[in-house]
C-alpha cells in the first residue's frame, strides 16, 4: 500500500484479466468504465463529488455513469431521500442507496436489464471546512447486482478521515470510494481481499475504517463479525463493536455522549467471575451519578496479545463473541494493550463518565512502571492519560496464596508507587467493589478450560447457564473434542 499523490490523469488502457494486480486508483476506475456490464449512479453529500470525479477524469465515464448528484441543501436532500435528524449517518446512507438504486431499476431495467449489472454508490460525509474543524467522518456504500437482474447486494463502511487539510481529506475520500466500488463489483466473491484493498494507494495514517457490513445475495455466507475482525487484524481500525444479537455497529452509534462502563478481558470463556465483577461495578457506577442511569455496558475483548500471532482463529473469536452475547452484553473488540488507549478511544464518542471494571492483578500491572518503558512520560504520563476526564476504576479483589483477601487497601506495590496508589484511593479514582461473591475468586480460566476439554462437569458451575449451554451445543473451547484453535 502506497500513498497517492494526485497528478494529471495518464492515458489508461484496459488490461483484461488479473484484476487482483490492479491497485492504482485511476486504473480501477477505468476498468469499471470499460466494462459494458456495469452501469450506475453516484450520490455524494458533504465533501464534493470526489468519487464520481475519478470516473470522469480517467475517460470512458459514459459507459458507467448514469447520473451523479450532490444534494447539499438539507431541504433538497429531505425532499429526495426523506427527512432525518442526522445527515451523516448510516440511516441516511441507506436512504440514499435505496432511493437511487430503485430509481435506476425503474428507469433502465426494461431497456438494458438483461445485460447490465446496475449499481448505486452513495456517501454522506462531514469533512473539514472553514467553519468545521472537528474530526471528519463519513458513511460510504454501494448497492449492486452481482449478475444481471440478480437480487441486490450491499457493502457499507464508516470511515474517519485523518488528514488535517480539507483537500487531502477529499483526495482520500475519492480514493477509498473507488476502492470500495471496485472491490464490490470485481471482488465480491472474495470479501477478505475486498477489505485489504480498501487502503490501496492510501495508508493507515490517513483513513480509519471502523465498520464494514456486507448484506444481500452475494454475501449470504459472510459473517460480518469475522469481516470486522479483519479490520482490526489488518490495522484498518483500532476497534469494532457488536450488539447483543451479533449485529455490526459503528461504535459512536452506541456510545455517542453516553456514560460507559467497560470490563476488559479475554473472556475465554466468559465465566461467573466476569459476570459478578461487571454487575457489582454496574451497581456502584449507577449510584455514583444520576446521569449514569443511561450507561452503555460493554465487555471488551482485547486482541493485543492475539495480534502478536500471525493467525487469529475465527472459531475461537466467534466463540468468545457468542458466549458474551448469551448474557446480553455488547461486545467491543480492540487492539489495545494499554488501558489509557481504550479511554482515549472512547473519548472520541463521549466526554461523559467512564467506569472500568478491573481485577486486582490488572491493577498491579497498571501500577508497574516496567509496562510503560515505551511511554515518554512513563507511568505518570500513562496514568494521566488514563484518568483524563471523569474516569474511575472499579476493582474486584483476589486471594493470595495463603487465601487472604487482597483489595486496594493492602495490595502489594513497590515503595515508590505507594503514593500513587494512595492518591488514586483518596480522589477516589480507584474504588473497591462491594458485595462480591467470594466463591468466584477460586475460578481460574486455565483450570476452567482444562475442565471443559476433559469433560469434567464441574466447569458448568463456573459459568452462567446460558454460556454452558452454548458451549455444549456448539462444542466451543474444545468441549467434546470440538475446535479449540
Short key terms for the protein model shown above:
485 residues; alpha/beta; Maf protein; Rossmann fold; eight-stranded mixed sheet; six-stranded mixed sheet; 16 helices; 16 strands; 36% helix; disordered N terminus
CATH architecture of the largest domain: 3-Layer(aba) Sandwich
Can you give the helix content as a percent range? 25-40%
What would the principal axes of the Cα set say about the shape? Answer: elongated
Strand order of the largest sheet: 8-7-11-10-9-12-13-16
Annotate the secondary structure layout.
Blueprint: H1 25-33, E1 38-45, H2 50-57, E2 65-69, H3 74-81, H4 90-112, E3 117-126, E4 136-144, E5 153-161, H5 166-187, H6 191-196, E6 207-216, H7 224-233, E7 239-242, E8 248-249, H8 251-255, E9 260-265, H9 272-288, E10 296-302, H10 314-326, E11 330-334, H11 339-346, E12 354-359, H12 360-366, H13 378-386, E13 391-396, E14 398-399, E15 405-406, H14 418-426, E16 430-432, H15 445-454, H16 465-474
Parallel strand pairs: 1-2, 1-3, 9-10, 9-12, 10-11, 12-13, 13-16
Antiparallel strand pairs: 3-4, 4-5, 5-6, 7-8, 7-11, 14-15
Helix pairs in contact: 1-5, 2-5, 10-16, 11-13
Characterize the structure shown.
With 485 residues, this protein is of the alpha/beta class. The chain has two domains: 19-222, Maf protein (Alpha-Beta Complex), CATH 3.90.950.20; 252-481, Rossmann fold (3-Layer(aba) Sandwich). Helix content is 36%, strand content 19%. It has 16 helices and 16 strands. The protein has helices at 25-33, 50-57, 74-81, 90-112, 166-187, 191-196, 224-233, 251-255, 272-288, 314-326, 339-346, 360-366, 378-386, 418-426, 445-454, 465-474; strands at 38-45, 65-69, 117-126, 136-144, 153-161, 207-216, 239-242, 248-249, 260-265, 296-302, 330-334, 354-359, 391-396, 398-399, 405-406, 430-432. The strands form three sheets. The protein has an eight-stranded mixed sheet with strand order 8-7-11-10-9-12-13-16, with helices on both faces. Strand 4 (136-144) and strand 5 form a beta hairpin. Helix 1 (25-33) packs across helix 5 (166-187), helix 2 crosses helix 5 and helix 10 (314-326) runs antiparallel to helix 16 (465-474). The longest helix has 23 residues, at 90-112. Mean pLDDT is 90; it is low at 1-9.
